[in-house]
Amino acid sequence: MIQKLNLLVFILIGTLSFSQKKVDPTPEDIQLSKELKEKYSEADIAILSSTEEITFSYDKKTKKVTVNHTHLQELINLDSRSTIPLFIFYDDQSSINKLKVSYRNNKGAGIYFKDEYYNDDDLFHTDARVKWTSLSFPLRGYKYNFEYAKKYNDIKYFINSYFDDVHPTIKKTIKVQVPDWLDLEIQEINFNGTSITKNETRDDENQITTFTYTIEKIDAISKDKNKPGPTYYRPHLLFLAKSHSSNGKKTTLLNNTADLYKWYHSLVLQLDNNTESIKEKTLSLIKDCKTDEEKMKAIYYWVQDNIRYIAFEDGIAGFKPDEAQNVYKKKYGDCKGMANLTKQMLKIAGFDARLTWIGTKRIAYDYSLPTIAVDNHMICTVLLNDQKYYLDSTEKYNPLEYNAERIQNQQVLIEDGENYILDQIPEMKSDLNLETLSANFEISDEELIGDISRNYNGESKSYFLYNINNLRTDRREETLDWYIRRDDKNVTAQDISVTDITDRDGDLNLSYKINQKNAVSAFDNELYIDIDYYKEYKNLDLKKREIDYIFPYKILEKTNINLKIPDNYKIKELPEDLVIKNSDFEISFTYKTEGDIIKYQKIIHFKNAKISSSEIDLWRDFHNNLKEQYQKQIILSKD
Fold it and tell me: Are 214 and 176 within 8 A, CB to CB?
């Protein structure tokens, strides 16, 4: 019995060892992973090969064109041990029909995927689901194959396919099989500067044309923050389904902008807006208003203040606005629901108000492309006296006739019954966002003391108001103190005063007295003064960055500091001026004297709300000078 047991153990161990050898990395795999690690030093995993195949079918029951999208990846570990998440998203318009992880010998790895609703702090509710798991690579050179198939129930929800991935990819292939009965336009986006090749083959027997795209050695998706939306810089295919034919009958899908609007408008026509429940409130808001502008402000600002913005993506509700009375009752809504409530209240007040679709600056497309990928937002437009007023109720503390950077200069699709209006939101000049800091300083006992006044306009003001008003009242003073001192124990602030933080239209001013213990150093008969406490953008070095750096708005900051020269002292040394100007940013530091006053002025201007990739090298070079400039001191010596 013991001999039989020993024999069984021996056989089992031998079987496990043989099986383990089939999945352990080969010497060639280990060597390959080392070579890839040298090239992609920050990566733990690489995708050796990635293949996507896209095919189309016609569902006779639903009379919809469906899409089958299969993915197959070969993954290799570049480190001693690694664990990565694997995830696939789907929703009410799609399903995952195949999901498998296998070892390098193609034997199933027995990986279990969880299936749950996707949670996102930016989304109040979404129908998005995610299948996900954690995949562990125990050794360098360890490989897995990852395969799944996703089906779209309606081709209009199948938008694009990207070539890059979260891991560096050695080879990527996308095959699109287009049957003759489907009119599909494939747009090639952000191909410039890539090595993507395209091959077209024809299958006359099955009446299918196959487009095969291939790229090799593509870097992982950038992890940089403050970057543009992916459609601006990531290479991808954009799919535009124009029409399809069945039994000799042609059915139009989204052939042009009119077709896209027709579908959007059909969703609006399904709304059952009962305005009786909001009529009394609307009339009470405007009863004391004397002008149309006052009436618009009263309604617009009330929606901003009283309806909480939430993001809601749920099947058709991701495109269809909620009824006005529902948003009013619940006191929350997504952009579409808030736009609809704003529209209905304005109509009660006698205005010609329209729902308006728009893609924010995160999206590179415009309405020349008939696809639901072109927009991600909805606002309300008022047509009055040959002028259009664009009202985005999701933007808290936006004054009338001022639009946030994210929608400025963006194309809009305005409802007009069975027709539509295409227009463009005006671009706002950066000087409307001017933020100024004015200070008068004196030196007392090796400390810098003085009065500071800060004034905010445009989006600098909106940002300030939003952040302050979202705090509990009992925390505002504490937060303002931190905002002034930057948590520096050497700095104290007193007599902090701020103007009305609920007023969108008036001036916003913050004033305080400040005492800096670490700004003046005395050596022998000389004083060394660090006059610039805040040192904006000192840490914006943009090392290794290759894509645009995006600011929240066009920034224009002016600092004017007057320093009184103490009695019996004279100027020994002032820092040299520093000036740079280019298409994206203008920055200057200047010093001059008037009598016993040293006048220091700093102007920082990001004119286009970004540092373009073409200007990043210039910024990096300038940034070294910027840091040096912030280290320079004013030197005074005794007479």
Answer: no
609 has a pLDDT exceeding 80: yes
Contact between residue 47 and residue 75 where contact means Cβ atoms under 8 Å apart: yes
Name which of 365, 359, 376, 363 is nearest 425 in CA terms. Answer: 359
Candidates 412, 405, 454; CA nearest to 430 is 405
Cβ-count burial of 186 within 10 angstroms (0-12 exposed, 13-18 middle, 19+ buried)? middle
Do residues 584 and 612 make contact, with C-beta atoms less than 8 angstroms apart? Answer: yes
> Which tokens is 612 given?
């373009």
Residue-wise pLDDT tens digits, 146-198:
999 999 999 999 999 999 999 999 999 999 999 999 999 999 999 999 999 99
Q: Which residues pair with 359 in a beta bridge?
A: none
CB 15 within 8 A of CB 127: no
Note the pLDDT tens digit of each residue in 570-589: 999 999 999 999 999 999 99
- At 549, list the tokens: 């750096």
The backbone torsions φ and ψ at residue 493, rounded to the nearest 5 degrees and listed phi first, read -125, 140
Residue 207 makes CB contacts below 8 A (sequence gap 6+) with: 179, 180, 181
CB 625, CB 589: distance < 8 Å: no
Distance from CA of residue 316 to its chain's centroid?
23
DSSP 8-state symbol, 547: S
Dist. CA 304–CA 447, nearest whole Å: 44
Total-model pTM: 0.90
Which residues, in sequence order, are CB contacts of 410 under 8 Å at separation 6+?
A: 358, 359, 360, 361, 424, 425
Distance CA 606, CA 226 (A): 14
The set of residues, in sequence order, having a beta carbon less than 8 Å from that of 503 and lying 6+ positions away, is none
What's the 3-state SS for 212-235? EEEEEEECCCCCCCCCCCHHHCCC
Q: What is the pLDDT of residues 237-287, one digit of tens each?
A: 999 999 999 888 999 999 999 999 999 999 999 999 999 999 999 999 999
